Amino acid sequence: MFASRMLRMRPVTCSAAAAAAALAAHKGRDAECDAWFSSKPKVELSYFAAQGAAETLRYVMVLGGCEWTEAAWPVDFKKFSGPASLYNPEGPCPGFAAASSEGTLARNLGRAPVVVIDGKESIGQSKTIERYLARRLGIMGSTELEAALIDSVTEHVRDLKDKYSKAKGVDKEKKEESVKEYFGKEMPVFFAKMEKALPAGAGPALIGKSLSYADVTLYCFVVDFFTDKASPLAALDACPRLKASVEAVGKHPSIVKYRAARTNVAT
Questions:
Q1: Which of 164, 166, 248, 249 could staple 219 via S-S, CB 3.0–4.6 A?
Q2: What is the pLDDT of residues 107-128, one digit of tens each?
Q3: What is the pairing mode between strands 114-117 and 121-124?
């Protein structure tokens, strides 16, 4: 009986030791975290001289008050004949071709964007970069729950982008009607669902009390993503909270300043 009790007690002793070690490690991580959030990161962005897949990322940095440097490669669209042509040193974008060949873009599998953080580590994949910087710049919510809700809004936006790609991908003779239906029916219905999914709040922030990664993601999608600028805004008419968020981001002093000075071409 005594032996069996001792056997049952051993894991408790081990667990206590493990807990102490975990607590010490946690304190170390807390100190690292405090240092991590105590200063703005130094960001070097490598991307085309275009809005494209890096524009939401730029808005994240603007809203978060982070200055950055950028290798903005010019693109000669007259020479562009598909993604493969970008890797040709004499093609539409020699800067990108060189960066890819040199291994600068290895963290994104030879693609862009890539950022270098604090002159040390590089990160690829636009959405990964956006989330990382949103957290580090304090625009990913004030709690883990808010962070998850913010993330879900960005994924809803990605779903709506995918639906647009599908609408454009139909046969040529059906494309005009398909895109018209997307803006006139599919987008308003989807926005209405997004509006209902939002947690209670006074606004204009979609999640929490302050504008966040969710707000700039929606803003970039509605205002910059489409050639047709009127239809996405019209699709928000029945969604006062989404509309208020877009308007608030558009009036934010840092966003206004950034857009006034922006030279990257729309894509």
A1: 249
A2: 999 999 999 999 999 999 999 9
A3: antiparallel
